[in-house]
Amino acid sequence: MAAAKNAPKVREKVRAFALGLPGAVEEFPWGESVIKVNKKVFVFLGSEEGGDAPGISVKLKDPEAHEHAMSVPGAEPTGYGLGRAGWVSVPLAGSGALSAELLCDWVEESYRVIAPKRLIAELDAG
Questions:
Q1: How far apart are CA 82 and CA 57, in angstroms?
Q2: What is the DSSP letter of 64?
Q3: For the segment 46-57, what is each residue's pLDDT rounded down to a tens digit?
Q4: Burial class (CB in 10 A: 0-12, 13-18, 19+), 101
Q5: Does the predicted TM-score (pTM) go above 0.90?
């Protein structure tokens, strides 16, 4: 039960981390929060309230990180065909709830896959 209560806090930490990355902006297509860089989504945060269990979706190209994410209870390839491109949807609550730190690592990896080289250089210089 504690994991479900922590989900909004974890989501907010992940959101704040993502928005702190160079060039990151938040938009709300479909009434859900997404964080973009260079007009491309690098993390789906879903909606704050809603019937769906809270979770995030990130693009993980690193095979080890992708495999780890897919091993989380409730994790699945992201819908709408995105799973085939390496996107993974991970729940923020439940028996396998992850730390905000690990989720932020995955958000950064997703950012590095999507962001232009100049912004990655800015991140690395910071």
A1: 10
A2: H
A3: 887 665 678 999
A4: exposed
A5: yes
